[in-house]
Specification:
Shape of chain A: elongated
Strand order of the largest sheet of chain A: 1-2
CATH architecture of the largest domain in chain A: Up-down Bundle
Radius of gyration of chain A: 30 Å
Number of strands of chain A: 4
CATH superfamily of the largest domain in chain A: Fumarase/aspartase (Central domain)
Number of domains of chain A: 3
Oligomer: homotetramer
Chain lengths: ~450, ~450, ~450, ~450
């Protein structure tokens, strides 16, 4: 049973996908340690540092299924060393060739490179699902490119936008995240096998060659120099995860806001049987959106924690790892839940166009005060216009009267414009500016990054 | 198997004690939910809101051992609600009386009060172990009150202290932490049962009475008003945990520093069989100290995360809980490991008095320049003395000569003092000031807080 | 001119009050250093370590107005030491008695105790203004104790509450904060004068007495033992500030939410002339509320930063101070702005009772589904009732029909209750439970903590 | 006078360079606002939205030197709007053409684009100084590539390295940071001018063209779509700054460690006149290194703060800006101090080769236990060898005898090897592995990134 919520059977699924939790599961972690030992043996066999037969034997036994993790765990407690028992077990299984297990390597070589192997699997998932979310947003941006809704600044109605425009802004963010993932990939997925202090001293002069062969075997990149005391790659990865999580959390929060009973412009997918409240039968809560929104803070704090590992002392200390062992799984796992939630929400989203329109008209035209100001400004100058329109707007607001009526009482306006002109200005559909141009630019870029979507 | 390091069988033990992990284990969490439902039923039976027989029936079935958590977990996924399946299961077991389970309560009542019950168990452990660490430090402060060592500022030798003095400073900190725990206890251990928005509306006018009876049954305090949207108690608790963790991490870091090969003034307990390095046979690493030091950052970041829950929207949202579900177990669990590590280290600490003395003499008296300055100052004025002594010190430093010799070449000194006087000044044991007074004050306060220790 | 926003003349006022910025202004900082030197001289004069005349001379020159801070700043750059130039200047002004300035003290003694003196001024302001905010909330809780509004959970309408109830919850939080301030006060306001490594070695055996006299002169508490390497008091203070800031930010955020055009239940004070938007004349932005809400994150991060100082190395290092020099002023200053903003908003708050009622009726009774369920449950059992009412609620929601009508079509209801009964259940004023009891408990506690308010 | 330490005249210089503080000074901030207004007017003139003469007039008055910032600050307080007074002042100076100032723009357009202009100046400084630090490290890596010193893991002596190797690892990190800066540059330095909700509605259909012309004029990139609610670029920049700061802080901390009196392997530049301690004449503190090390935490926390802005509500809120206004200057300013300190330290570093060698020999050969194990392993198998050598190492450690002597008593060794062989193994210079290869790889990459250094 789990003490951490991620491993809680009842609710752990809300904090991470099964797929991503398996990447960081202790069995996979153990497997990765075996993989690195096997690759090391392979490389050392190739260059003749150990017998080729030993290499083959070690590789043959690098399968986590054949080990008793409970026994190894017991031995960890005994030796007070986290890797030695794994080495011992592999040695034992490798029989006479056991001597050649972990030859010349240091614990850190295995553990760090193993972590990067886990990270590689996580990276693939994150990239795949970020693309999937981007594609869904692309779909929404196009589908709702003309769906009028209220643009709000400071929580207050500001000017009309379209729902597709809102989605296009998020899409543009996600495209940047995909660029970022691409840029950091080679740097982040770099292994390290260079011995106790990174000098390859224990590899009889063949260290660099062994490292290269082993890492290539593991499909990882080769560093210029040992990075045991340089943890920037993990922090860099965490930073990009934090950015993705930030966007997803923002989307969740935005939908949560738009689901307020009084706004009610969208609704997250509601499956029959889903229970909103244990006591209020009428409740339909934005629970997926809240889930989506809520996981950004844990990701941000895990990212901040991992940055503390940037400071290492001397050639290595054992203080920073722990932060990594905690935070790397966390941020990947929380993000995986966000990526899944986002896909579910975006796929099944209900867009209440009628309510969007209703809200847009809530202030009886007040929302288009800027338009009136600009039109009036062409005649009387912008400053004068701002002053006049401001006064009318405040009157309409305080007396709760239609803006149109108040404007029509204003001599400066009445003397210059017709009622039809004012009507035209106050129609939100006429004040969308170059929304479509901006959406188009984003869609084009999306097609470049994501490929042209097939007909859905 | 665990995806989070806390639940990792191999190394989870380094991140939390078994005892504390069990407090936060999902089974105990489930048990606490049953406990709250049972206490609620009891209270509602007492005031006649539900039949007394129903209350008895519900109380009788509130035992986690009789439930299939896997089945409940499956149902959570189905209903997308974290508590309903628990309620259902309890209803089912309570037979005809099942109707009266969770009567008038909201999910949050059960989950929050359940969390406080877990916190109560954690609190007891933290208080007990903080006292235990304090007692060990008390012992060291007394035992080594006269053991001379180098006081260092900026990492550089400054003036003599004693090892007991160093321990007394830490002890004084821990005594403050114990005061803090005492001050916050009643506030933190407060339950909450007041219905969906905290108005007790669903309790037929008997809400406050029911809440009082139920919470007293659970041995928790009763709030003035609903705190569903007021999470300050959790943040407050987290803050005190952070302070304790800070002190423990500092001790770990200090011992790690003092174990540098070149300093080598203490050694953490080294048990036969313990493996330092998988490749370097000679290594005796300060691994317990590093463990102790390394867990402060995770605690600080968990505490920072939980502070994000201070902002709740409206009468309640589902965004802050998640941070609490993540961070509350984390900070208690990490601290439990620190408290255990600290006890182990302090109990088995090797203090290398000889090395302490050796280091104190490393600079051939330079460390007592302040003393010389004050004595000389009485004759020639402090400013002049500072100037003269500074010059001698820099000469001794750059020429790597005994300070005494350089001083003796200085006419202002030679003309005024004897070599014996200088010798006396340069003896560190003569320059400990009122160290003993300060240690005494701390020991006295320790006895007040911890009780007078029995002969060890 | 300022590079940090706090010192920006144009907008710095939004980030801190003038009063609090002056507490942390460099001139006051300098004055506090002089104050500590003067108190030290006084104490040393009393015990006879320095001539009483010297003490008097030094005290006489401890006035920041008589110093040229630019010259001192230039000298700091030269000596690369932050305090020496202050000591020099004071020595210079003290003439022949200058020798006795800073006698036996270390830089840290002066700087730390000086900081605590600044903190004392800040503490007074924080306590005063937190009380003022609490008193305003007390007023609102009482005034609006019967003002019906919608209680919302998950951003969705849940059950009726009153506006006074909402305020009472915040008030209860603030009362806890006042308790916390009280509890930590003596601990936090503790000075430290004990020499280079805290042993009082340089005070000729009179250290503890000197420290006591000097700190009493400064109206600060006396520590048991040197706390140069124990910074927990600053972190503790920061934690309480973080809690207060959390409550204030939550209030700001809540009002910002309630000012959404579609909700529009309250309005922050709007002074004539205030400009909402540089381009949209109709905008009335919740700018004070946003200001109030926005400063919590900077406070939380400053508090997290200061916690990093908990780890000090050896008897002292120069790495943690910097975090304190940055974060202590920050968190006090940001909080001062929040306390001021909160007072302004609470004093001038417009409560739109009509809109509150309008929103409460928005769902045509759906919000009282729980009440219906309980009443029906008394007849048919709670489970059956939950099922029936849930079905009716979902129908009403999806068909956008009055809940009452849908209920009336349900045979189980129609056969048992009259239309008048249903009407009565669906009246929010009848479903406020024990709101008044809870409010009363908080008001009573407020009177204990704040004193009984005079007639306003 | 400054309330924030950055603006403190006495010590602000330790928290940021004058150059970088000027970038973020309020006058430069004001100038940037004028620059954006001028570029906007220019673009609007070009496309004919406003008269070209108006554009020229506005551009002509966009000089901060001609404005009274105190008067503007007073007006900010009055209008409770941070930008309007600037617009007013520019309008006033532009006379009749004032009408056309800020035409169609929203406050956010000006403030955000202005911030990016400041960021551009900061970016240039950061890039320049990061390169400078990298070049200095390149020099040290080459100069000391053969300078033997102790490699330490867990604070304990592990195996020999060279000082140049240590520097090369840091250099490799810095080269990665330079890559990162390059990758993010175009994304980060992107402006935004698109009106109140980003739709360009107020630009009469010419918005995208105007934005493009204006941003090109300012030498900034053009976004695909409005980023008022997408703050990821700032967080991304902060993340890279955090990484650079992490490396610099690590270097500072490392030198601080190596300056411990007992280790004493390097010394930071010590200028005559510099005061170490106000009371201890002999102290030579690593104050620059401590400064360097200490500023990483403030940068990390400022970076964490800015990540909180990732969540924006609706089309924009006023809550995230504040975090940016606080954190962006902070992290640039603190980093500028670190970059300057690092250059100073690296330029004037004293490397105590003798002490490095002395420390390497401190354990009488124990540090080469791994080498002995490998050589012995070739004869008796690695496991047996590890066991034998471990036993000898523990004996040598506990009895404090030369490792060589203990080894020589071991029959398995004595029977197989000569004393000369053992001597050879225990010579650290013979156990540096492929250190040179790794250094070469880094130097080559440095030359690619930094250009081949001219003879120094």
């Amino acid at each position: 049973m789990g003490a951490h919520i991620i491993d809680n059977r009842m609710v752990g699924g809300s904090f991470g996908t099964t797929e991503m939790r398996q990447v960081w599961d202790e069995k996979n972690r153990f497997q990765k340690h075996l993989d690195v030992e096997a690759a090391l043996a392979y490389a050392e066999g190739e260059v003749g540092l150990i017998p080729e037969k030993a290499a083959k034997a070690i590789e043959a036994h690098a399968d986590a299924d054949h080990y008793d993790l409970d026994a190894i765990a017991a031995r960890v407690a005994e030796l007070q060393h986290t890797l030695m028992p794994t080495i011992e077990a592999l040695q034992h299984q490798s029989g006479d060739y056991g001597e050649f297990v972990h030859y010349g390597a240091t614990t850190q070589d295995i553990v760090d490179t193993g972590t990067v192997l886990q990270l590689k699997e996580a990276f693939t998932i994150v990239e795949r699902d970020t693309k999937a979310v981007a594609l869904l947003l692309r779909g929404l941006a196009e589908k709702y490119r003309n769906t009028l809704m209220t643009g709000r600044t400071h929580g207050v109605q500001a000017l009309p936008i379209t729902f597709g425009f809102k989605c296009a802004i998020w899409l543009d963010e996600l495209l940047r995240h995909l660029d970022r993932l691409k840029e950091i990939k080679a740097r982040v997925l770099t292994g390290n096998i260079s011995g106790a202090v990174g000098t390859y001293a224990s590899f009889d002069g063949k260290g660099p060659e062994i490292e290269k062969l082993a890492l290539e075997k593991l499909d990882l990149n080769v560093p210029n120099i040992c990075w045991q005391s340089s943890r920037d790659r993990f922090s860099e990865y965490a930073s990009v995860i934090a950015l993705i999580s930030g966007t997803l959390g923002k989307i969740g929060n935005e939908f949560y806001l738009l689901m307020h009973t009084e706004i009610d412009e969208i609704e997250e997918p509601f499956t029959a049987g889903k229970v909103g409240s244990s006591t209020m039968p009428h409740k339909r809560n934005p629970s997926s959106c809240e889930g989506l929104a809520s996981l950004t803070q844990p990701v941000l704090h895990a990212a901040a924690l991992i940055h503390q590992s940037l400071t290492m002392e001397h050639e290595r200390d054992a203080m920073s790892w722990r932060a990594e062992w905690i935070a790397l799984p966390e941020l990947n796992i929380y993000l995986s839940a966000q990526l899944q939630l986002a896909q579910g929400i975006l796929k099944g989203l209900t867009v209440r166009k009628d309510n969007m329109l209703k809200n847009l008209k809530l202030q009886h035209g007040l929302i288009l005060s800027e338009k009136v100001m600009f039109e009036l400004g062409k005649e009387v100058g912008k400053q004068t216009a701002h002053h006049l329109v401001y006064t009318c707007a405040m009157t309409a607001f305080e007396q709760e009267r239609p803006f149109e009526d108040v404007l029509w009482e204003e001599a400066e306006i009445r003397s210059r414009f017709s009622k039809e002109e004012i009507d035209h200005w106050l129609d939100p559909a006429h004040y969308l500016g170059s929304t479509q141009t901006a959406i188009n630019r984003v869609l084009q870029r999306a097609d470049t990054v994501l490929g042209r979507p097939v007909q859905q």
